[in-house]
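Protocol step 4 of 5: obtain the predicted structure for the target chain.
Materials: sequence only (see below). No template structures provided, no constraints applied. The aim of this step is simply to have a reference model before the mutagenesis design in step 5. Sequence pasted as it appears in the construct record:
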Amino acid sequence: MTAGEGLRYPVPPTTATQIRAWWDAGAGDAAPVSDAASVVLLRDRPDGVEVFVLRRAATMTFAPSAYVFPGGRLDPHDTTDLPWVGPSPAEWSRRLDTPDALTAQALVVAAARELFEECGILLAGPDAQTVAAPDPEGTWLDARRRLERHEETFAALLHSHRLVLRTDLLRAVAQWITPAFEPRRYDTRFFAAVVPTGQAPDGDCSEAEDSRWIRPADLLAQADSGDAMLLPPTRHLLRQLVPVTDAAQWIAAHDGDRPLRAVTPTPILVGDDIMVVIDTDETSAPAASSTSTADRTTSVNERITCVCAPNPGPLTLDGTNSWVLGAPDAEEVVVIDPGPADEDHLRRLLAVAGSRHVSQILLTHRHPDHAEGALRFAELAHAPVRALGVGRGDLADGDVVESAGITLHVLATPGHTGDSASFLLTQDEALLTGDTILGRGSALVAWPEGTLGEYLATLNRLIDMAQDGSIRLILPGHGAPIVDAAATLHAYREHRLSRLDQVRRALASGARTVQDVVEIVYADVDHALWPAASQSVRAQMDYLGT
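Step 4 output (structure tokens):
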């Protein structure tokens, strides 16, 4: 993995047409940017969180028919004094990285106002500990209509009902700036909140033609099949939410210690398709699996649990993902990649297994951050360790592991290392990839233990499987699950081929050594990662025969 490689997301067909026209016109000056606020509204369900989304009316000028989170532009009255509890405007200014406290206040007020106006959720109450009660007589609906028609301000509404704004119920989670090709551009701060007890959103506003609660993975799947339109910020936030099982815990992880960093998607041509790329260094929110040092466990679904090891770093992201797999009614589990030799982590894996016996321990490859703890965990769990090319009980490409009420197909996926394996969980069309594919960034192919030719062949194989529907979900060795498997695999291949072209051009310009090429091709990458980049360049030069 190298820093700063970015993630790529597809764009709606109408946006692709707009980008092409912008390119054809010479990619002229960008439109001015307006401040806006949006709220990711969440609730817990037994199988994970659900998010509330609106489908914008087809008549809207910006993002027609797209599914979005409630939100909108700032109103001049959002800076009016109003009853307020929670972090001060000055503190919000630090969290939101605004030029002054008044702008921060306006963003927070806009988030609460739009949430109330568009779906009836009121993050306010008579005091600092409560929220407004449900409204059977329609008082709040009338107030929403007045707000929408600009007949009343949000501050006046709170004053007249003797309510205080509960800013403590919001957390800032992201900041996205609309790309230059859009005629309307926004600097949007995304907040998150859990739906207050007793309140229910309804999507009853003029800008929306549909609204719903939905699991993030389900909405992403609908987008992948063409049944829903998503903008890149929505898709990216949904992707982060896929493994989350506790909404309040995920929101609390965004505690404001690190100010937001603005993300501006950049359009690129990938083959014949247009995608946007985002810098993952600037968009990596606190991981769902590391909301605290004491609890690094998340459930993807009833069969899949991730336990993230406490070994974060430039090459391990949030830490190594250890996977505990098993049907809910099974008496055993399979563990993939026990991770480093960290006794607390290994015993946490046993705690997740609970009364269920560990039937097998599978390894994706030999690197210590994935396999160092395997022998110790085998002692604790009384289970065999299996991998490609490791002693008795070896696995081979095409083997099938039937255990714990699940079926795993073994795929040899060399490239990152010669012994790299991936495991296809057929019940979920989910591929556990180790370091072959990461949750963000790109995998390291370091010569001589990794070879680019093998890696490209592996990517081609996985792309074919994703295209025929065999792979829909990727469960990586580091980072969050990937629900847009096909797009990610295509982006990985295009990235490799693009880097290869850069190395060719560097060599053609006179570069002779690995260091020469690194200084040209990886000039924008943190120098601390240049040793890893050198290994990657050596693999590329080996592939090119230089």
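Step 4 remarks: Residues 339 and 371 are 5 Å apart (CA to CA). The first helix runs from residue 13 to 24.
Proceed to step 5.
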